[in-house]
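Thread: Newbie trying to understand structure tokens

Hi all, I'm a second-year student working on a class project, and my supervisor (Dr. K.) asked me to get a predicted structure for one chain before our next meeting. I've only ever worked with sequences, so writing a 3D structure as a token string is new to me. If someone could post the tokens and maybe explain what I'm looking at, I'd be very grateful. Here's the chain:
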Amino acid sequence: MFKKILIANRGEIALRIIRTCREMGIKTVAVYSTADRDSLHVKFADEAVCIGKPQSSDSYLNMAHLMAAVEITNADAIHPGYGFLAENSKFAGICNDHGIKFIGPTPDMINRMGDKITAKDTMIKAGVPVVPGGKGLLQSVDEAKGLAKNMSYPVILKATAGGGGKGMRIVWQEEEMEKAYDTAKAEAAASFKNDGIYMEKFVEEPRHIEIQVAGDQYGNVCHMSERDCSIQRRHQKLVEESPSPFMTDELRQLMGEAAKKAASAINYESVGTVEFLVDKHRNFYFMEMNTRIQVEHCVTEEVINFDLIKEQIKIATGERISGNDYFPQMHSIECRINAEDPYNEFRPSPGRITTLHQPGGHGVRVDSHAYAGYVIPPYYDSMIGKLITVARTRNEAIDTMYRALSEYVIEGIKTTIPFHLQLMQNERFRAGDFNTKFLESFQLK
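---
Reply by user tm_fold:
Sure, no problem. This is what the structure looks like when written as tokens:
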């Protein structure tokens, strides 16, 4: 087992990792930018090292600073959390070259899933359903128009190195293609320093359903059921739940086996997530694989009573997974509590939290690094924390969530709590009648 883990991240996920490490008897090192010196993850770790100025490029994305922190603290492993360098194969390789265990998959595994074209080819060979589309990167607008004509509109352009909706454009007719093509390439280049884009058939009225998987270095792979992440705004998830209200036992079995095929195709080692689009007829298509812990891992933990961070660390030490698949015994919902103004296009709302009261009671979990007096910095993701509820049924989990949201008091900044309160009372949401376009017609009162 590791003696000391450096956590190359910040905020709630860093604090989440610290808690599991403490239970496992592992010392922790927090790293922080000058803007995060008062964050709870800094206070709760056994050691803390400042790694630079507020901008991510000067701190959390600065590999040299992170490796220097490893050296001066004698850490023997790095946990990257999510975001920042969690799916950076170069960073994983640097860790390996210096004898520091990167708690995640190998650089080769990250690369094979990080590039969308390579990942899609890998899935086709593994027999995993994929969205119909072109076979490689688009080289010109004329090629895009010809492919779209053969495929039939609507189609979607996607950045091969993309994520979070960047470099992505839906094209409904040929007249829109040139502008969409140029915009997608420019956005991809600006966001990922890679302007490669490809085309797929656009799946209308889709659900975004993902399967949690785990694999070890001995070739064992299991799935841990699904999460429904269809409540999104501009491809950014706001609410996640497990199990999906759209799921059937037959579909869960099929998607679970497909996710295991996907992981086995690259001999996956660590915990990860295979994401699918599911159309209204319950046909499912591979979208991407996230080779890291997910923000929304908490709902899976609640419905199967399992610590995914602990499993991730144990796999990194060479332990075997159980090899068994897991199925939900409860229902869990997660609301992302962000420092954003839902009445003003969800504009970020950084600043000082003057008053904070977090909810509690049966079936309520709060993962957050915030406290009264804490200043939400403007440099990073706007997430304050995650509110998770768990109950025997979906309706009970929603009722508990509404009660917990009503107790959640955050003053001094704007938050997404009013949005979530209204969503929990929405008839269509309560009936499970939604897809990734649901929020386009949702009216905040």
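A couple of things are worth pointing out once you decode it. The chain has three domains: 4-103, 132-201, 207-440. DSSP finds 14 helices and 22 strands in the chain. Feel free to ask follow-ups in this thread.
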